[in-house]
């Protein structure tokens, strides 16, 4: 979950520099606040690099044995291990193994519960922020532990492709419990909880399905049993829990981390003779065909536009988010990303609004949508066909990064 824009600069690399480049302004009661440029940016510039307030791996990913750092979400399995697991070919060998960025010799585990980290720095950072509260010790694999019951219940309600995780809420509570300045951290999180009750219920419905009210009550009870704290009692009453639930559903940013994708990018940069290049490209193409795919939409706290002037990426294969420009940006211009992928942005205005309303609970009023106001509010047959094909399509897609949630 990315920090609220008023406070996010303290979570950025070089926050003083970022504060001199961008600012937060109130736009209106519908859009709320937005991020605006204070100086000119050229196409391709990095606006800022930010770490999240809290992050957590999707629970089904964890169950499927995708190994990631418990703190920064960096992949722990090597590119070859990643390829073997995804392709189902246990004896698969990758060429150029030296291009793999994973360093197993640096990995460390929590001595109590054995969860893994990519480095001693991440292990210490997790312990300092939330892990002392959430460490299950010898009960890590105990299905009757309250935290594990909460995880199992979430998996039984929210199937892949996942779009959020109940453990984001758990880490929020744990972070406040461990914080020296508890009031500051409560304010950071509480500022997200500002949606109307009907919108919060709509997001719960979106995440859990038709039986969401009963499921929400079960999650609420399990959440209290696992994590209740008197100082945070307002988060444990039904209304407060619903606000937290809607918070993680609408403010999360999916993170793609994959040692295999990093290896592929490194292979692409190799200077090879034509025949070797052709052989390597053919190997990678076949590998992609052997791997099952999945796709998850994600949301950043920056405002959306169907004609974005910035985009989010994760170039370091961990939770560090990089916001970069897609076009020149002038001082005073709002910096917007798109919550839609490039194909969705080419759909009709009605189709775009349908996706945004269902997943993010707002109606877009960007320049593109305003210019298409006179379009009929219907979804074309071609788009309906595309949606149907996309739901069942697996072959021919490129392998996606493993997704985690922040």
TrEMBL record:
Subcellular location: Cytoplasm
This enzyme's EC code(s): 2.1.1.359, 2.1.1.372
Any one cellular-component term (Gene Ontology): cytoplasm
Highest taxon listed in the record's lineage: Eukaryota
Protein's GO biological process: methylation; negative regulation of gene expression, epigenetic
Matching CDD domains: SET_SMYD5 (cd10521)
Catalyzed chemical reaction(s): L-lysyl(20)-[histone H4] + 3 S-adenosyl-L-methionine = N(6),N(6),N(6)-trimethyl-L-lysyl(20)-[histone H4] + 3 S-adenosyl-L-homocysteine + 3 H(+); L-lysyl(36)-[histone H3] + 3 S-adenosyl-L-methionine = N(6),N(6),N(6)-trimethyl-L-lysyl(36)-[histone H3] + 3 S-adenosyl-L-homocysteine + 3 H(+); L-lysyl-[protein] + 3 S-adenosyl-L-methionine = N(6),N(6),N(6)-trimethyl-L-lysyl-[protein] + 3 S-adenosyl-L-homocysteine + 3 H(+)
Protein name in the entry: Protein-lysine N-trimethyltransferase SMYD5
